[in-house]
Amino acid sequence: MSSSIPPDAVGRRILCNGEYGTVLYVGNVPPTTGIWLGVEWDNHQRGKHNGTHEGIQYFECRHPTGGSFIRPNRANFGIDFLSAVRERYGLNDGEQGTENETESLLVIGRKTVERVGFDSIKEKQKQLNKLNDVSVDECTVSLAGPEEEIRKTCPNIRRINLSKNLLSSWMEVIAIACQAENLEIANLSQNKMKFPATSPPASGAFCKLRVLALNQTGVTWAEVLLCATGWLALEELYLASNEISVLQRPTDVLQSLKWLDLSENRLTDGNQLQLIADLPSLERLILSNNGISSICFPDVGFGKKTRNFPSLTHLVINGNRIAEWSVINELDKLQSLQSFDCRNNPLMDVYETAAETVKQTLLSPKNQLLGVKFLLNKFQIFPEERKGAELDYRKTFGIDWIKAGGNQDPDKNRPNEEFFAAHPRFQLFCDKYGAPEDGELKKEQPFSLKQQLLSLTIKCPDKPEQKPISKKLPDSMTIQKVKGLLYRLLRIPGSELKLSYESSKMKGKEFELDNDLKSLQFYSIENEDCILVRW
Prior knowledge:
The chain is α/β, with parallel strands linked by helices. It has helices spanning 81-89, 118-124, 149-153, 170-177, 221-227, 326-331, 354-363, 383-396, 398-403, 417-422, 426-433, 449-452, 479-490, and strands at residues 13-16, 19-28, 35-41, 52-53, 56-57, 67-70, 79-80, 103-108, 111-117, 133-135, 141-143, 159-161, 185-187, 211-213, 236-238, 259-261, 284-286, 314-316, 339-341, 373-375, 453-459, 469-474, 498-502, 510-512, 530-534. It folds into four domains: 13-74, CAP Gly-rich-like domain (SH3 type barrels), CATH 2.30.30.190; 104-111 and 168-378, Ribonuclease Inhibitor (Leucine-rich repeat, LRR (right-handed beta-alpha superhelix), Alpha-Beta Horseshoe); 384-440, no CATH class; 449-534, Roll (Ubiquitin-like (UB roll)). The strands form six sheets. The protein has a ten-stranded parallel beta sheet with strand order 10-12-13-14-15-16-17-18-19-20, with no helix packed on it. It has a five-stranded mixed beta sheet with strand order 22-21-25-23-24. Helix 8 (383-396) crosses helix 11 (426-433). Residues 92-104, 114-118, 121-126, 350-354 and 444-451 have low confidence and may be disordered.
């Protein structure tokens, strides 16, 4: 390793004994002799101090043990792009690939974009000037190299994997990209770079770029917007793990963006999403592990459609802090949503039956998300359940529909506005299944509390010391509420209770009460039956 120090060493990225860092100081450190490099390590456990030696602050670190002083001959400042290509592929102009080349994948985010195989390159692309796919990840690339050499040597590059190298400046990336006019996919993840404070000069560097990964680069959203002036064709942007906490409204940039990954950042304030809600083409938004606790679209009320995220079809927000079911009503406002991934959020931990609770919420045809695929701890709504809920809704509110002016004769069917406001999807179900007929309509039953109360005995068969309890409960009471009552009586959490019942007409046979959202009436429980409680 050369002991020479680049003239622009401060700010440069280095590799030393497998550890990545950034040079923040070059000079003497008395009382020692000779030149030292002050380095802030990516892994703060590698360091020893915060840039201070014997009371003198030579540089500053973000972590109190993130810094070290090393001798220049221990620092690898990297190589230029073409040197890395030749070293990785074993190819020079006019030379064929080597026999010991192995296979690699170009992976961006969680998505495998393109297979880049050294063996296939050897077979299909014998020369550097025919290379379309270049993967030089972890090759210590730090510079573009001599001007125009990339264009002359590799003029046909379309995809580049430059992840985990020593690129320290976005301007160096531009110097590489401007020599690859056909560049479509670029992975620059895990390069801690300095991004410009103003929009870079206009160039054709990224005129065809469709996919860009900047995961773990330290980029801010404001810097993204400055650089995005040159990304006119960009469709996919990956910005995971950049500690982004603040967004800004894009103005005349990212207008073609369809896929945005902002996972593993610090967007704890869900209101920040309003600032990117005008992106016209955005179809997929990934916000996993940000600490978001709520999502709200205040521009419209329940049952209406928001202007925000007009093209959004897929939303991934797992691993956040969402605990309220109201998020379902807010998502109902999105115009184009098709799938919503909300796994590993607190709303799934409130009750043991949370998945069933949200299923009932979603199956309510008042909710327009019926056609949406939901991922809630592997929870899924099946088509037959959706159809059953729609048919039942159509029957249940058929009487109200007729009272409001509805009619089975299309020429006489004129429900008033109040009915449509309360049941905006009723007509859709009539069009789909036909208007409800007289025999289908659910007529209101005369209410009689006395008729609906059941005289039941509550027993704990595994706890003989617990005396039976007699209770009168309404037949409409859900199993979940029965568990709540038992908690007050027995001080046993509902999540630990397992209920069954024994019919007074079928002694010795138990029937499990396995759905907390169903009523006693659903299970055909009658007077003098016995509820059995176990935990």
